[in-house]
Specification:
This protein is an alpha/beta fold and 424 residues long. The chain has two domains: 326 residues, Rossmann fold (3-Layer(aba) Sandwich), CATH 3.40.50; 64 residues, Winged helix-like DNA-binding domain superfamily/Winged helix DNA-binding domain (Arc Repressor Mutant, subunit A). It contains 13 helices and 13 strands. The strands form three sheets. Strands 5-6-4-1-7-8-10-9 form an eight-stranded mixed beta sheet, with helices on both faces. It is globular. It starts with 9 loop residues before the first helix and ends with a strand. The structure holds S-adenosylmethionine. The site of S-adenosylmethionine (SAM) has 17 residues, from loops.
């Protein structure tokens, strides 16, 4: 393990914030969906957090952007603590839930440290070293020193069972962690939401190999791994674009690299046309042009729009961190800006934090649904590609009703509310 692993980089901090906020939103959306549907009279729903590439659960050197060097916790602890809070929330709101956490880590030393972290936070008595996930009792945490990519079938056999909702974090260090077949199994399974941290630095380093005339076996195997990530069809498009673009400077290379990352959206969508896929790209002050690309897939239409809110929040945090870094390290005369690629390639949401106005949302909705009667959940699904928030959509629908362009019963909207739109 490298010494620098002990300090939590800024992008990891933002990733952790997105993870925690999204887990909170995800549990809430599903909980209330089930609670309102009254399907679960006797069976308690089960929520599972799977951290397939756990690391040791702790960054002993503290945060890179903070002068305080107290330890901070990693994604396994975030997942455990979030589900524990959710368990209390669910009981208080009249529908107890069952929760489990599954933590996988391939490196034996890191795995030992992970177990120590779990002891340290007081959950050691809930930990079981097992891959027999079906045997987990309420609140238990399965840990295993395994290669996650070989565990796909076993994981899915458990998390695809009826009454189970699961959230997977796929956060490896390199492309070998996210081969197409492994990711497909997970994202396409019912009631599965997935967050994937795309390893930009490794991708950026390896992409240049495409233009080399002669590749050694090690170099070739690196490119082969990326082909396995994207799938042969999309990878061949990336190779074609990279070979045939006139790349004269660093900036062009960066743009093509970023554009290629965006292609991973197509890869994920090709795994299951039913899922909504979101990408957020964040830039950080720690190193020049260092990027964090998070992909999220969800089967829940509200989840896709809720995610917009979570991402907007994360983006605000990112702005704050950038601002702090600017103050800390003033740019010297003649030096390039710390953030030279503010206008990132098309397909990635812009960093503009202003919100679309209600009239614009209203026009989009009327264009899609005029003359139709549909349920609110269908409207959310259709709007998954926009950056609207669920609250903004609801507010717009109420205004459309006031203007007699739409009609629905009652004052509160739920996913199942039927809405009739005027023919215009
Ligand atoms: C980027 S770190 C994860 C960081 C963690 N998610 C967090 O946010 O705190 C990736 C971890 O995955 C582990 N790893 C790499 N390949 C793996 C594999 N095939 N199966 C399981 N773990 C793996 C590495 O040893 C490393 O600890």
């Amino acid at each position: 393990m490298r010494a620098s692993d002990d300090v939590r980089p800024t992008q990891t901090k933002v990733k952790h914030q997105v993870l925690d906020e999204y887990l909170k939103a995800w549990t809430g959306i599903i909980f209330w969906g089930i609670r309102h549907s009254r399907k679960f009279v006797s069976t308690s729903p089960r929520f599972v957090y799977v951290d397939a590439f756990s690391f040791k659960g702790k960054y002993t050197g503290g945060d890179m952007d903070s002068p305080r060097k107290d330890s901070v916790y990693g994604s396994p602890v975030i997942g455990i603590q979030r589900l524990d809070k959710f368990t209390k929330y669910a009981s208080k709101n009249g529908m107890p839930v069952i929760t489990n956490v599954i933590l996988l880590e391939k490196n034996p030393e890191t795995y030992q440290l992970l177990k120590e972290t779990l002891e340290e936070i007081g959950v050691g008595h809930r930990v079981r070293e097992t891959t027999d996930f079906g045997s987990l009792r309420n609140g238990e945490i399965a840990v295993a020193n395994v290669d996650a990519t070989k565990m796909g079938d076993k994981l899915i056999a458990y998390t695809s069972q009826q009454y189970i909702w699961s959230f997977y974090l796929l956060d490896p260090w390199g492309p070998s962690g996210i081969p197409y077949e492994f990711v497909q199994k997970i994202v396409s399974a019912p009631r599965h939401d997935v967050m994937i941290n795309f390893i930009y630095i490794a991708f950026q380093k390896n992409l240049g190999l495409i233009r080399k005339q002669q590749l050694g076996p090690r170099e070739q195997s690196k490119l082969d791994l990326w082909e396995k990530v994207f799938g042969p069809e999309i990878w061949s498009k990336i190779v074609y674009a990279y070979r045939n673009k006139l790349l004269t400077g660093k900036r062009e290379k960066t743009e093509v690299t970023q554009g290629s990352v965006v292609k991973y959206l197509d890869t994920l969508q090709s795994m299951d046309p039913e899922i909504a896929v979101k990408l957020t790209a964040l830039q950080f002050p720690d190193k020049r042009r260092e990027m964090l690309y998070l992909f999220l897939t969800t089967h829940d239409p509200t989840g896709a729009l809720k995610l917009n809110e979570v991402l907007a929040e994360a983006r605000l945090l990112e702005f704050e961190l950038r601002h702090r870094a600017r103050i800390a390290k003033p740019i010297r005369r003649g030096q390039m800006s710390l953030f030279p690629f503010d206008e990132i390639s098309s397909g990635i949401e812009s960093l503009d934090s202003s919100r679309p106005d209600i009239e614009e949302i209203g026009n989009t909705i009327m264009k899609l649904f005029a003359g139709q009667t549909v349920q609110l959940k269908y409207i959310y699904k259709k709007l998954a590609d926009t950056d609207y928030f669920p609250g903004e959509v609801q507010k717009t629908l109420k205004i459309l009703r006031r203007k007699k362009r739409a009609n629905f019963e009652g004052s509160a909207l739920s996913n199942r509310t039927w809405i009739t739109f005027r023919n215009e």
